[in-house]
Amino acid sequence: MIGLGVVLTYQEDRGRMTKQPGTKRFRALMVAVVSSAVAFVTPAVASAHPCHRTELETEHCYSIASWYMPSSGEEVRGAYAELETYYGEVPHFNEEFLTNELWVDFPSKSEAWVEAGIVFDGGRPGSPTNDEYFYARSYGPKQFMKYQNYDAGAPMYSWYGVYIDDPSLNGDWCITWKWDSKPDECFPSFPKTSKLLQTGLEDAGPSTRNNGRSVGWKQTMSGGWYKEWNDAGSEAEPFHESPTCINAPAPGYPVGSIAFSVPGC
User: Fold this and answer.
1) How far from each other are the two terminal CA atoms of the chain, in whole angstroms?
2) Which domain holds residue 253?
3) What is the mean pLDDT of residues 42-50?
4) Contacts of 183 (CB under 8 A, 6+ apart)
5) 171 vs 49 pLDDT, higher one
6) DSSP structural state of residue 76
7) Count of domains in the chain?
8) Do the bridges between strand 61-68 and strand 236-240 make them parallel or antiparallel, or are there none, so unpaired?
9) Would residue 21 count as lying in a domain?
């Protein structure tokens, strides 16, 4: 189990915006997931780019894939992602951040979600290229809580995995890192199922740099795990906005994967 260097019992909503096909809905921190052994894009210079939003503003830039379940009978009980990040840098970490994460959303409740992954935000002072493991949840507006491990993060070019699921189908959604035998944290009083899973990059700053890949799975109500993001049943859609870049599927990987970077391709 990862020991948490710092636990923030409350933190102001960072103003994240969840992207759904055809809609925009406010959120607060997001998940990126990555996986592969070959770097996707390595920008040559750390030049400024048009995504000038900061963590204190309401809109950030995204490069993500979504399992979107619009029909009344579609729902899942969990998500899993394996991640591998190749590079991340946040030079102005007092005002900017970026994440590679996985999260589950509950569209029936405003700003309700659970997420986990890594964050680059200068948690270790003077280390703009260091990441930290984190997980977070939001029950609604101004009900956001983040747990961040300031002592440990994922090594670059190394696999890491995380489960976010409701194992008892009672509304208790749990975070479990791949290497742990039991949940690291569970959050009660959420809906028993999720209708929106998302994974990818969230970028909040004009000078950030990042690349990686994500491979994820959804857990159906019968308990099976599937990663057919782009088939008719899962209705997953890739989404990105300038200056981020996305490849779906990731080079060398089947459907159920994305590669992302910032700045662009």
Assistant:
1) 36
2) 7-262
3) 42
4) 167, 174, 175, 176
5) 171
6) B
7) 1
8) antiparallel
9) yes
Residues belonging to the chain: 265
Query: How far apart (Å, rounded) are the C-alpha atoms in residues 152 and 2?
Result: 8
Rounded to whole angstroms, how far apart are CA atoms 123 and 43? Answer: 23
Backbone angles phi, psi at 43, to 5 degrees: -60, 140
- Alpha-carbon distance 206 to 95, whole Å? 10
Tens of pLDDT along 156-195?
Answer: 999 899 999 999 999 999 999 999 999 999 999 999 999 8
- Looking up residue 188, the CATH number of its domain turns out to be 2.60.120
User: Cis link prior to 141 (omega < 30° from 0)?
Assistant: no
214 within domain boundaries: yes
Q: Which of 203, 213, 200, 149 is nearest to 175 (CA)?
A: 149
Instruction: Indicate the SS3 state at residue 134.
Output: strand
Q: Is residue 1 part of a domain?
A: no
Predicted TM-score (pTM) of the model is 0.80
